[in-house]
Amino acid sequence: MSSTLAPTRLRLGVNIDHVATIRNARGGDHPDPVRAAEIVAAVGGDGITAHLREDRRHIRDADLARIQAATELPLNLEMAATEEMLAIALRHKPHAACIVPEKREERTTEGGLDAAGLHNQIAPIVGKLLDAGIRVSLFIEAKAEQIEAALRLNATIVELHTGEYAHATGEQRAAELKRIADMAALAAKNGIEPHAGHGLTYENVQPIAAIPQLAELNIGHYLVGEAIFTGLGPAVSRMRQLMDEARG
Question: Is 95 a catalytic residue?
Answer without folding.
Answer: no
